[in-house]
């Protein structure tokens, strides 16, 4: 009799334990997103490392065409590894996919993941052209999932301070916005020189985040005029290569104009924004925010740590919380918002072909 009672007691306790364990695992699954990283280039490894530091993500797998690299990184983060993107998606069900690999090699798989109700965070740019971007946005809406772009500058403290100052109308009569960007060629893949694979050159792949900051703070320009070139040996080669140097002129309204000068060079990278107002000159980079008066006397000078890792953590936290608690957390860099960037860039390329000023808003109106 005593043995029977002990057996019943054991069975009850075991069932209670299993029930509690089931509830605990259920709660864990609600708080953590089963996640894979597709593409282990510099951006992919940065986002992977940031995700590993946040409790919101459960790193389930990594994938890259480089088998040795993928296996090594998977061992470091204790997750599965794949060198076949299709197998990654057919053998698993993820809550979100972080995509850093080039779009020409991943477009099919991004759409496959979206159709499996997988949320997507993509390194810039959103797409190779506006039409492609629009297709991804519509697919995300149809599948009721989040599609976001990893715009680090939206989480950089210097650019956040600029945005806050503009919201508070601290600068009177802004009349000129100038962006200057130089980029090294050391990390440029051969595919980036092919217009069909890349979609564009320095404007699309290197200036995307700077243009995102301009659009975010000053809205879409009414007109753009662009001149592009590259260092190809002759005119015929130049026609079949993406641009490595570009000048973009923008008219926002009758009193505000802007320009962007960009090039790929051998040497240190520089990206900064100069804003000229009636009584102030504002300088913003990822490490500085300064304000000088009309005579050049500095009134405000703030230096920041150049910490992309911290920006990546903030970006991923926002992405995760927009999925886990959408009612309380708004996605900071949604694909919808990034359609403006794509319209601006596509219109710049159109202007290069027509040698005429073009209107980005016309592209958005056609969608509406």
Short description:
Helix content is 44%, strand content 23%. The protein is an alpha/beta fold and 368 residues long.
The CATH architecture of the largest domain can be given as: 2-Layer Sandwich
CATH-assigned homologous superfamily of the largest domain: Dihydrodipicolinate Reductase, domain 2
Distance from N terminus to C terminus (CA atoms, Å) equals 78 Å
Major sheet: arrangement of strands: 8-9-10-7-11-12-13-14
Description:
The chain starts with a helix and ends with a helix. The radius of gyration is 24 Å and the shape is globular. α13 (335-354) packs across α14 (360-367). The chain has helices at 2-31, 42-52, 67-77, 85-90, 107-115, 130-143, 157-167, 195-198, 202-206, 208-218, 235-239, 308-324, 335-354, 360-367, and strands at 33-38, 57-63, 80-82, 96-99, 119-122, 147-149, 176-184, 223-229, 245-251, 257-265, 270-276, 280-285, 288-293, 298-303. It contains 14 helices and 14 strands. By secondary structure, it is of the alpha/beta class. The chain folds into two domains: 2-150, 3-Layer(aba) Sandwich (Rossmann fold); 153-304 and 334-367, 2-Layer Sandwich (Dihydrodipicolinate Reductase, domain 2). The strands form two sheets. The protein has an eight-stranded mixed β-sheet with strand order 8-9-10-7-11-12-13-14. β13 (288-293) and β14 form a beta hairpin.
């Amino acid at each position: 009799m005593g043995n029977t009672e002990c057996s019943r007691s054991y069975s009850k306790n075991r069932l209670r334990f299993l029930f509690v364990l089931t509830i605990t695992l259920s709660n864990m699954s609600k708080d953590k997103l089963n996640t894979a990283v597709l593409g282990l280039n510099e951006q992919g490894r940065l986002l992977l490392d940031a995700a590993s530091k946040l409790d919101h993500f459960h790193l389930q797998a990594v994938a890259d065409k480089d088998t040795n690299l993928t296996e090594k990184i998977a061992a470091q983060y204790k997750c599965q590894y794949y060198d076949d993107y299709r197998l990654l998606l057919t053998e698993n069900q993820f809550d979100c996919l972080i995509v850093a690999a080039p779009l020409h090699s991943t477009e099919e798989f991004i759409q496959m993941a979206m159709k499996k109700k997988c949320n997507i965070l993509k390194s810039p740019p959103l797409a190779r052209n506006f039409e492609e971007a629009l297709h991804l946005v519509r697919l995300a809406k149809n599948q009721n999932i989040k599609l976001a772009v990893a715009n680090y500058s939206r989480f950089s403290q210097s650019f956040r301070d600029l945005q806050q100052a503009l919201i508070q109308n601290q600068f009177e009569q802004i009349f000129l916005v100038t962006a200057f960007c130089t980029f090294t060629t050391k990390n440029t893949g051969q595919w980036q020189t092919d217009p069909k694979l890349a979609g564009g050159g320095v404007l699309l792949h290197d200036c995307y985040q700077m243009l995102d900051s301009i659009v975010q703070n000053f809205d879409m320009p009414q007109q753009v005029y662009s001149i592009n070139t590259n260092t190809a040996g002759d005119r015929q080669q130049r026609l079949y290569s993406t641009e490595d140097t570009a000048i973009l002129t923008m008219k926002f309204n009758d009193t505000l104009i802007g320009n962007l000068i960009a090039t790929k060079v051998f040497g240190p990278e520089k990206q900064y924004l100069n804003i000229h107002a009636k009584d102030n000159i504002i300088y913003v980079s990822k490490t500085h925010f300064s304000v000088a008066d009309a005579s050049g006397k500095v009134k405000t000078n703030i230096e920041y740590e150049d910490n992309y890792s911290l920006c990546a953590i903030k970006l991923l936290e926002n992405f995760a919380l927009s999925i886990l608690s959408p009612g309380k957390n708004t996605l900071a860099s949604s694909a919808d918002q990034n359609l403006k960037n794509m319209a601006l860039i596509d219109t710049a390329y159109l202007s290069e072909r027509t040698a005429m000023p073009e209107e980005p808003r016309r592209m958005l109106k056609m969608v509406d």
